[in-house]
TrEMBL record:
GO-annotated biological processes: signal transduction
Xref: InterPro entries: Kinase-like_dom_sf, Prot_kinase_dom, Ser_Thr_protein_kinase, WD40_repeat_dom_sf
Gene Ontology cellular-component terms listed: cytoplasm
Domain Protein kinase: 1-170
Membrane-traversing stretches: none
GO molecular function: ATP binding; protein kinase activity
Organism, as annotated: Gambusia affinis
Phylogenetic classification of the source organism: Eukaryota, Metazoa, Chordata, Craniata, Vertebrata
Name used for this protein in its record: Protein kinase domain-containing protein
Domain of life according to the entry: Eukaryota
UniProt feature coiled coil, ranges: none
Length: 652
């Protein structure tokens, strides 16, 4: 993509929006091509990048269609012939050719003269573009092939294209890759862009490696005998593999593939369920913490990524009893498996799950520092991750497997600052104790841009000369995904005052300024609320199972296959967590169950779906968008709506 991903998307969207506007006015452009697209700006942050021009041969479309053979060979639809009636679908064919040019950087040349080109297009010949894994813009690539279909009735209309492109899943999805039958998939950021599949057992055990950056299988069915794997961890010079037979094998990666004989074989008192690498500090060597199925944690000291002889053990049961005073009869003393770990305070503390609680360990002295109680029995923490809140404090997000609740702690003070079940569109986040805050704003406020705002907790009314009056109803943007669990609440957020600094973000995610879309959105919102309230709490598809820190946001995958994106925003004197987007791949119902998800690189999130019937996998690869990219995306169509709304008012 010569223009880059975001600018390519914005140009494609703005051209589709221009066509949709013309078609609403019953005008057929008839000559859409790159030469007739004026470049207004190549800055991604600018609201307008391109405009359509040259309407010299445009035609009014009547009920029976239009006639005429004007157009440009290569962009002209095959049904444009003398005496043949056509409609606005000819513009959609040309739009498909423009998309090809955007994705490839080449003109859609199919011949040297008009008759030759027309014959090829009529026979279904199209310009050659790389596969979905090469282009890595699944939705736009698919839209291109739909638009240049030979049959006009199969092409989408411009307004449908615009609506599809306003979904965050459209620009975020890179590609889908079908994989063969495999037993297990392992993904992690330490593995980089490698997705590792394992299959078989004992002498038949083998592995395959997929490069998710290129969408290619680089290693296929390489033999590596051994028992079924419980977890694995890759480091620069070694690969750690733990098996269900309570063993850990450490392989050298200096010789690359295939994996040779293990350099180290470690026996463990229980099955290892979690491996975590702690880098070397000034006065201590690097370590690997191996959490086990009975709550034990083995600590291995490393030299060149390989363990020295003699490990140490931390017993969760003993720490809970001797340091934190829990009795043996306490239900929190059950042998909970260690399922997740996180490194905090510049590497000086390790937090790891212990059933419904968290244990905090000093990584140098290996002494217990704190026990936190985010949940109650029978919940167990399945994932935790770190991030930095807007006030600069290091924070820890936790997720449990029973109540499906997301909680947020400030690491320095161990203070619970966010607790949401169900997870609504907007939820309050407390500032750390002792942090100074400015005086609260009045409910009626006027910001620096002259916007007058009123809020009563349920709705917010904003008036400005530029955008007119806008009515924003809280909680209406992701109503059918409003809970991590299956329950849904339509209560207003805890805070009753919406700061002016958050108005733009709320508007772009909650409502469209176009008056003609309000009725459709209201009907859709009502339908979503009704369907959300009827969800069965036992539906496993709604179970969240991991937390992924992605560029200032947290991505939450659920078994059903969708991804919630959460960010913390400043709202006046308050902090708020909010669902910024919900990502869902096409054909979700046919992909199977989402089994694995991980941030494998700074800009890539990979989700692994498996079909239970045949054990086949499908990798869904996403662009790891953070809050900055999401803001640009929402503003890309928000500004166009505002411009059109302002234009209508001027004409009145």
């Amino acid at each position: 993509m010569p223009l880059g991903h975001m600018l390519t998307f914005k140009v494609a969207y703005q051209v589709a929006a221009g066509l949709a506007y013309l078609h609403r006015k019953n005008i057929i452009f008839c000559d859409l091509k790159s030469d007739n697209i004026l470049v207004w700006s190549l800055e991604v942050q600018d609201p307008i990048n391109v405009k359509l021009s040259d309407y010299g041969i445009s035609r009014q479309s009547f009920h029976e269609g239009a006639l005429g053979v004007e157009g440009t060979p290569g962009y002209q639809a095959p049904e444009v012939r003398p005496g043949i009636v056509y409609d606005e679908k000819v513009d959609m064919f040309s739009y498909g050719m423009v998309l090809y040019e955007l994705l490839s950087g080449r003109r859609p040349a199919l011949g040297n003269h008009q008759l030759q080109i027309a014959r090829k297009l009529s026979r279904g010949v199209r310009p050659v573009l790389g596969g979905l894994e090469q282009v890595q813009f699944y939705s736009l690539h698919t839209l291109m092939t739909e638009c240049w279909d030979t049959k006009p009735e199969k092409r989408p209309v411009a307004q449908w294209c615009v609506r599809q492109m306003e979904e965050p899943s459209f620009p975020c999805l890179r590609y889908l890759l079908s994989c063969s039958s495999q037993s297990q998939l392992f993904l992690s950021q330490l593995q980089g862009c490698s997705a590792v599949f394992w299959h078989g057992d004992n002498e038949d055990r083998n592995y395959s490696v997929v490069n998710v950056e290129k969408g290619q299988v680089e290693v296929k069915r390489m033999c590596c005998p051994g028992n079924r794997i419980s977890c694995q961890m890759k480091m620069p010079n070694s690969l750690w593999i733990s098996t269900e037979e309570q063993e850990v094998f450490v392989y050298s990666l200096k010789d690359m593939c295939p994996l040779s004989q293990p350099q180290k074989r470690l026996s463990c008192p229980a099955v290892v369920t979690c491996l975590f690498h702690v880098p070397a500090a000034e006065q201590s060597l690097a370590k690997v913490f191996a959490g086990m199925s009975d709550g034990l944690v083995a600590v291995y000291t490393l030299v060149d990524d390989f363990p020295l002889d003699g490990e140490m053990y931390l017993c969760s049961h003993t720490l809970n009893k001797t340091v934190f005073g829990l009795k043996d009869s306490d239900s929190r003393q059950r042998p909970y498996p260690v399922q997740s770990m996180a490194l905090l305070s510049s590497g000086s503390q390790l937090w790891f799950s212990n059933g419904p609680g968290l244990l905090v360990i000093d990584t140098s002295s290996l002494q217990a520092v704190r026990r936190l109680e985010p949940y109650k029995v029978p919940s167990s923490i399945v994932s935790l991750t770190t991030s930095f809140s807007l006030c600069g404090e290091e924070a820890v997000w936790t997720l449990d497997d029973h109540s499906n609740t997301l909680k947020l702690y400030y690491a320095a003070s161990y203070e619970l600052c966010g607790d949401r079940n169900p997870l609504r569109d907007v939820f309050a986040v407390q500032r750390p104790a002792g942090m100074a805050t400015a005086a609260g704003d009045d409910i009626n406020t006027t910001d620096q841009n002259g916007k007058l705002e009123f809020s009563n907790g349920d709705v917010t009314l904003i008036f400005s000369e530029e955008a007119g009056t806008q009515i924003i109803q809280h909680q209406d943007s992701v109503t059918d995904y409003c809970s991590l669990s299956s329950t849904c609440s339509v209560e207003p957020p805890q805070s009753n005052c919406l700061g002016a600094t958050d108005c733009s973000a709320l508007k772009s995610r909650c409502c469209s300024p176009l008056a003609q879309n309000l009725q459709v959105q209201q009907e859709s919102r009502t339908t979503n609320l009704e369907s959300a309230e009827e969800i069965n709490p036992a539906v496993p598809e709604l179970q969240a199972f991991n937390l992924l820190p992605v560029n200032g946001t947290v991505w939450i995958p659920r078994r059903g296959g969708d991804l919630l994106i959460i960010e913390i925003q400043s709202c006046g004197n308050q902090l708020r967590g909010r669902v910024s987007a919900v990502l869902s791949p096409p054909g979700l119902s046919s992909l199977g169950t989402l089994e694995e998800a991980a941030l494998v690189a700074k800009d890539t999130v990979v989700c692994g779906f498996q079909q239970k019937e045949n054990m086949e996998w499908c990798l869904v690869v996403w662009r790891a968008w953070g809050h900055q990219e999401l803001d640009v995306f929402y503003q890309s169509w928000e500004e166009l709506y505002r411009s059109e709304s302002s234009s209508r008012r001027r004409r009145r």
